[in-house]
Amino acid sequence: MRLTLIAAQSLDGFITRHDTPGSEFASEADRTFFREALRGFDCCVMGARSYREARTTIQKNLMPERLRVVLTRQPESFANDGVPGKLEFANTPPTQLVADLRQRNFQRCAILGGAQIHSLFLASGLVDELWLTVEPLLFGGGTALLAQRASVKLTLLSSQNLGPSTLLLKYRVEK
Amino acid sequence: MRLTLIAAQSLDGFITRHDTPGSEFASEADRTFFREALRGFDCCVMGARSYREARTTIQKNLMPERLRVVLTRQPESFANDGVPGKLEFANTPPTQLVADLRQRNFQRCAILGGAQIHSLFLASGLVDELWLTVEPLLFGGGTALLAQRASVKLTLLSSQNLGPSTLLLKYRVEK
User: Fold this and answer.
1) Which residues on A lie below 8 Å from B120 (Cβ)?
2) Distance (Å, whole) CA A78 – CA B91
3) Which of B19, B34, B107, B168 is the most exposed, fewest CB within 10 Å of its CB?
4) What is the pLDDT of residues B58-88, one digit of tens each?
5) Facing residue for A132 by CB, picked from B11, B139, B155
6) Mean pLDDT for chain B?
7) Do A13 and B145 touch (CB under 8 A)?
8) What is the pLDDT of residue A165?
9) Nearest chain A Cα to B18, which residue?
């Protein structure tokens, strides 16, 4: 199973504009890209905060083609939301979670954030690629792409324009 | 006089790797680009910390073709370093400094950092372009590109590869 971290950030590395939660700053071009890109994945992983922010949209769009896994310290508090095979809640370390998903025959997993989830999976050494949308904005503050210090080396795979000033950069994560 | 902010950062927006001062993380390709790019400027501005870090190199390379201005709250403590027309120390707000430089007929000024200087000049609305080298690294911590919160909109002018995985992104700063 291949893992791809997908995120959108300001040029200076913030995934939120200051204290505003979510990625409202992202361009329409990024949203279109993101929706289409997700079709290439049969599972995705996000944190509880990201889930809460997108809960309504996620619940409207549950599908057997893509399992959504929400990592949370308290899976029991989401007991009413769970739909096996479509929306599952887990309190499992990345290595165990990935082993479980592999055993269930999932092929491509998207890591969708937020920052804690990015750091957790990068630190586990399990992420194969990073697909980063870079919006033409400077925030100087907000939630950083990573929640913890890291020393990750990347190799640029491709750079493309999603919009006139919006870049999509794809990197391989060196292990 | 046109102002261009020139910096190198990790993909996630840090101009230092964790607590290591300076841009030792920057690639040889970026260093070569930076040296050549500076030739296009007849003056440049940096903060006192950046000056201290590069003092030996700067003093060896003083030239009448490019005035270096160091912004510091204590110009008097650098009295022995100053060489009028080549290396000057000032405690002047950006608007005043730029007016002074214009009056002295300087045409192109490079803003060289660090983060405080970036924020000071961006907040003044005087910066025309941002030339940002993006290295294929994630640090998750360090000195951020900007020292203060901002809401800066940019327009992408060009994107080029300096090396296989190192990008040079040039943006116009929208005012």
Assistant:
1) none
2) 57
3) B19
4) 999 999 999 999 999 999 999 999 999 999 9
5) B11
6) 97
7) yes
8) 98
9) A149
